[in-house]
């Protein structure tokens, strides 16, 4: 057994189990894995269960699996779990437990199987049990053990449809039936027949066509034979599962010469349903007499991952048919089986338990009891938080910058005197600022933004942040400048943060999601995947998990704000993990998500408003400052990337490159040509909307190109951008029309005499919307939302340029002589003409080709093999045809000027 288990994919997928802290004896702590299991099997002691399961009071094994879209297409309402999947995993004990073969010690966890059998008195036999024979490997056939051409399966279905006089199934339907039994696909998804005889006939004919195309030639994938030889050596039982007929499967296995490897073979005749139903995996475990927690499934698709996890088995995904980043939901992802070792499999199949020990106390958020005063610290990327018991928390900047905040003292009114707080503060000279050698310290009351969590201190999410502290002296402009400068990081600490929005809609009606449906979705994700809920009053308005968050835009646009990650592979794994979790819940609800930059069908009156106080303030204010502000709020979606800088000079160079190239990014990702069912005359309506939303807070910021530009000049700009709100006592206070400069002087009419905190400043910065936005990092904001295959292309484009010194300098050289008028001209015309916008002696397309080449070169120099993520934009610049223009071609051609097909074309 391992002390703690966090089975993750090689590309940074979320842990399979949530960690918890267990206290033993004198506040001694250790980590355990939190797993789901059957309560009736736990007579020997109380077991730590997953919080979502505790809240719901349900048995994880009885939680229904994700309904396949096949059921929706066939209008089926029944669950696809049948009585072949047992509700109790009551495997017989192995002979030798006693004379009757009956387990004499039921209720001990883990359930007795080949892992160990304490009733055995022969120590040699028991030692053998504790070797490797206590786990099972369940292999899929094609694409895992042997080479596979997935196009042959599609060709077979298309040929059968032609023979039967049926409409050829579209690509998305072919993707849905991948891994299903032929009869299941024919009756439930394709809806060609419900007659059993006809289903069997067509299923057999389809298999004949496939075998004719395949030619009976089978070849083991590289590394497969070596891997199964290792498993044979360690006496690990193996099963082979496939939805091919038994005769075909046995002939293929015999042809390869590996029939002796498998203890069990499951073929189409043995099960009623294929993937994503877990039936064939469950049946294999039953035949081998193993509990599912000891079974490891090897597959090559997300349908396999889903089925394995529904059966409570682990899953190793082989990236033979899909790229690695698309398989992020698996517990491990490999390209070849021989990349794995037996140790890897043992770690996957190991289950942490309290088999014979004392009953543990589950402690999720409890601090150690210590009567003596102490000081605790917790670190994030930018600040050190020092907790002083009974008094305050100090925030100390770790970044050495050219700016330094003078020592400020904060306290809650009537709580602790500032002078006493000062005495309790712990300073770190190594964190002192370069220019003045002073330590930057902020005191915060533990009752406010400081939250206890597993013995450390964390800070509440922002925005909005609670008004936990009140300044005893006014903040100064220098403090605000230093806040921005605190974002400077050394190159090795640079990260990539991706945010993307998408429109939710009902699959049957195409109507936008209502808040009640969004609430159900958020609660479902929180309970299934262990996210923390973010509430505003009685309304759930978002989720948080680590450094990721899910939030709602005003019209219900569903946004993932990703964690800061090192590589694009991790970023794409995060995106795909998010989409997997969302689809796991929404497919049961009949909800889909659309990847586009502007709502293509519905008007403002059709869009519900989310119950967030700040949005009501913005809704009232927007019509006063522009004609398209409400469209921006309720009908646009974007994808953006957030990137770091190392210094003020580095920030300036990246800011200028980002602003100059933003029109090119807008053109490459232009994807919003429709409004209320018709072409709107723009390729990026989303970009056009920002030109008449609120010119006080949007645009190309020409002052960034001034010689005097720096953090201070951006602060001057932000100080004069009109405010929207101040957040106090869990309420938004309308401060529209007033400025943060007034706030610094205590002259806000909405809260007269009150002074701002850094929380207020941080919240204010989120209400400024230029094409590139500066916070403690830079946000590239010029791209339309799009389908999942383009979500990774945008960060790839900007990372290749801004995180590579050579490419960045080349971009600055290219754009150095662009005039403010030329930059603004591109900003105005690109939403209409895209890459065909005339620029100097040619078209913007020609500049874009050079820039994309620089991005590709920059990614290659990073050394992470990330340049493939640019394939989507490489095709756009090669042809000069933007995504929006392709949609218009479909609209005027195949779609016959109907807008509804766009919901299928751009469905996540």
Strand content: 15-25%
Distance between the termini: 40 Å
Quickly give the structural class. Answer: alpha+beta
Q: What do the pLDDT scores average to?
A: 78
Number of helices: 31
What's the story with the biggest beta sheet? 9 strands, antiparallel
Give the overall silhouette.
Answer: globular
Uncertain residue segments: 1-116, 352-463, 465-471
Report on the architecture of this protein.
- The radius of gyration is 30 Å and the shape is globular.
- The chain contains 31 helices and 34 strands.
- It is 35% helix and 16% strand.
- The strands form ten sheets. Strands 18, 19, 20, 21, 22, 23, 24, 31 and 32 form a nine-stranded antiparallel sheet that branches. The protein has a six-stranded parallel sheet with strand order 5-4-3-6-7-8. It has a four-stranded antiparallel sheet with strand order 10-11-12-14, with helices on one face.
- Helix 4 (150-164) packs across helix 7, helix 6 (182-189) packs across helix 7 (196-214) and helix 19 (648-668) runs parallel beside helix 27.
- With 908 residues, it is an alpha+beta fold.
Task: Please summarize what this structure is.
With 908 residues, the protein is of the alpha+beta class.
What features would you highlight for this structure?
908 residues, alpha+beta, 9-stranded antiparallel beta sheet, 31 helices, 35% helix, globular, disordered N terminus
Task: Give the arrangement of secondary structure elements.
Elements (H helix, E strand, L loop, with lengths): L17 E7 L3 E7 L16 H6 L12 H5 L49 H7 L6 E5 L9 H15 L6 H6 L5 H8 L6 H19 L9 H10 L4 E4 L4 H11 L7 E3 L12 H10 L6 E5 L2 H9 L3 E5 L13 E3 L7 H8 L11 E3 L12 E4 L3 E6 L3 E6 L12 E2 L6 H7 L16 E5 L4 E4 L2 E4 L10 E2 L5 H9 L10 E11 L8 H15 L2 E5 L2 E7 L2 E5 L5 E4 L6 H22 L1 E4 L18 H13 L3 H7 L2 E6 L4 H21 L5 E2 L2 E2 L5 H5 L8 E2 L11 H9 L5 E4 L2 E4 L5 H5 L13 H8 L3 E2 L1 E3 L3 E7 L3 H4 L1 H10 L2 H11 L4 H14 L4 E2 L2 E2 H19 L8 H9 L3 H10 L8 H5 L3
Parallel strand pairs: 3-4, 3-6, 4-5, 6-7, 7-8, 27-30
Antiparallel strand pairs: 1-2, 1-9, 10-11, 11-12, 12-14, 13-17, 15-16, 18-22, 18-23, 18-24, 19-20, 20-21, 21-22, 24-32, 25-26, 28-29, 31-32, 33-34
Helix pairs in contact: 4-7, 6-7, 14-21, 15-16, 19-25, 19-26, 19-27, 25-28, 26-28, 28-29
């Amino acid at each position: 057994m391992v002390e703690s288990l966090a089975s993750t994919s090689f590309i940074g997928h979320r842990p399979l189990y949530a960690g918890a802290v267990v206290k033993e004896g004198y506040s001694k702590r250790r980590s355990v894995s939190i797993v789901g299991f059957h309560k009736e099997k736990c007579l020997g002691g109380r077991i730590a269960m997953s919080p979502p399961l505790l809240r719901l009071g349900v048995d994880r094994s009885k939680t229904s699996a994700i309904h396949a879209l096949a059921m929706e297409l066939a209008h089926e309402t029944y669950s696809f779990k049948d009585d072949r999947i047992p509700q109790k995993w009551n495997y017989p004990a192995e002979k030798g437990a006693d004379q009757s073969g009956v387990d004499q010690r039921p209720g001990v966890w883990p359930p007795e199987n080949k892992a160990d059998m304490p009733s055995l008195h022969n120590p040699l036999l028991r030692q053998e049990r504790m070797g490797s024979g206590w786990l099972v490997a369940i292999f899929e056939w094609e694409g895992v053990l042997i080479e596979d051409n997935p196009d042959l399966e599609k060709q077979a279905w298309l040929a059968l449809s032609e023979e039967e006089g049926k409409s050829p199934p579209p690509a998305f339907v072919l993707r849905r039936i991948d891994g299903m039994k032929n009869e299941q696909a024919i009756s439930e998804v394709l809806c060609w027949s419900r007659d059993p005889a006809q289903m069997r006939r067509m299923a057999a004919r389809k298999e004949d066509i496939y075998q004719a195309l395949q030619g009976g030639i089978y070849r083991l994938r590289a590394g497969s034979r070596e891997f199964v030889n290792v498993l044979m050596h360690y006496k690990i039982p193996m099963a082979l599962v496939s939805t091919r007929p038994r005769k075909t499967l046995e002939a293929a296995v015999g042809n390869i010469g590996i029939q002796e490897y498998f203890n069990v073979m499951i073929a189409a005749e043995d099960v009623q349903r294929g993937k994503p139903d877990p039936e064939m995996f469950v049946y294999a475990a039953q035949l081998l007499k193993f509990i599912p927690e000891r079974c490891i499934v090897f597959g090559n698709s997300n349908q396999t991952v889903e089925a394995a996890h529904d059966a409570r088995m682990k899953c190793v995904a082989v990236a033979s048919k899909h790229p690695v980043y698309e398989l992020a939901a698996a517990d491990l992802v490999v390209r070849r089986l021989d990349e794995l070792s037996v140790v890897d499999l043992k770690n996957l199949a190991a289950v942490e338990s309290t088999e014979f020990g004392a009953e543990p106390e589950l402690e999720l958020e409890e601090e150690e009891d210590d009567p003596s005063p102490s000081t605790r610290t917790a670190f994030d990327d930018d600040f050190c938080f020092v907790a002083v018991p009974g008094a305050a928390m100090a925030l100390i900047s770790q970044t050495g910058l050219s700016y330094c905040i003078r020592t400020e003292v904060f306290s809650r009114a009537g709580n602790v005197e500032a002078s006493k707080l000062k005495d309790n503060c712990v300073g770190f000279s190594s964190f002192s600022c370069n220019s003045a050698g002073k330590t930057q310290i902020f005191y915060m009351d533990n009752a406010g933004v400081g939250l206890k969590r597993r013995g450390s201190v964390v800070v509440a999410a922002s925005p909005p942040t609670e008004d936990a502290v009140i300044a005893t002296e006014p903040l100064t402009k220098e403090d605000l400048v230093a806040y921005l400068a605190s974002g400077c990081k050394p190159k090795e600490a640079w990260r990539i943060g991706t945010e993307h929005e998408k429109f939710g809609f009902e699959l049957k009606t195409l109507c936008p999601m209502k808040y009640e449906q969004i609430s159900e979705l958020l609660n479902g994700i929180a309970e299934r995947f262990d996210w923390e809920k973010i509430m505003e009053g009685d309304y759930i308005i978002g989720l948080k998990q680590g450094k990721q968050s899910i939030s709602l835009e005003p019209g219900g646009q569903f946004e993932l704000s990703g964690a800061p990650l090192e590589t694009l592979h991790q970023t794409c794994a995060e995106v795909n993990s998010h989409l997997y979790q969302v689809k796991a819940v929404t497919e049961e609800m009949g909800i889909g998500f659309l990847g586009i930059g502007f709502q293509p069908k519905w008007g403002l009156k059709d869009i519900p408003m989310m119950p967030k106080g700040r949005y009501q303030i913005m809704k009232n204010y927007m019509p006063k400052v522009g004609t398209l502000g409400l469209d921006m709020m309720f009908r646009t979606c974007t994808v953006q990337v957030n990137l770091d800088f190392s210094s003020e000079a580095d920030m300036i160079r990246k800011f200028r490159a980002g602003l100059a190239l933003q029109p090119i990014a807008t053109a490459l990702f232009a994807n919003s040509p429709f409004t209320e069912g018709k072409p709107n005359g723009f390729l990026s309506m989303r970009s056009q909307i920002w030109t008449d939303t609120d010119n006080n807070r949007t645009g190309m910021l020409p002052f960034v190109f001034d010689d005097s530009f720096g953090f201070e000049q951006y602060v001057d700009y932000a100080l004069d951008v009109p405010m929207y709100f101040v957040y106090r006592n869990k309420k938004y206070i309308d401060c529209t029309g007033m400025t943060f400069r007034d706030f610094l002087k205590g002259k806000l009419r909405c809260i007269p005499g009150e002074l701002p905190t850094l929380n207020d400043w941080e919240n204010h910065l989120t209400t400024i919307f230029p094409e590139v936005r500066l916070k403690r990092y830079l946000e590239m904001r010029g791209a339309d939302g799009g389908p999942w295959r383009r979500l990774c292309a945008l960060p790839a484009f900007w990372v290749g340029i801004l995180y590579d010194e050579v490419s960045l300098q080349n971009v600055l050289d290219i754009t150095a002589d662009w005039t403010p008028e030329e930059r603004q001209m591109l900003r105005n015309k690109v939403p209409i003409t895209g890459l065909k916008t005339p620029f100097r002696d040619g078209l913007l397309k020609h500049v874009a080709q050079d820039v994309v080449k620089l991005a590709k070169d920059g990614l290659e120099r990073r050394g992470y093999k990330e340049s493939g993520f640019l394939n989507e934009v490489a095709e756009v610049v090669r042809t000069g045809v933007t995504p929006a223009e392709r949609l218009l071609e479909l609209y005027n051609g195949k779609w016959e000027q109907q807008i509804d097909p766009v919901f299928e074309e751009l469905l996540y």
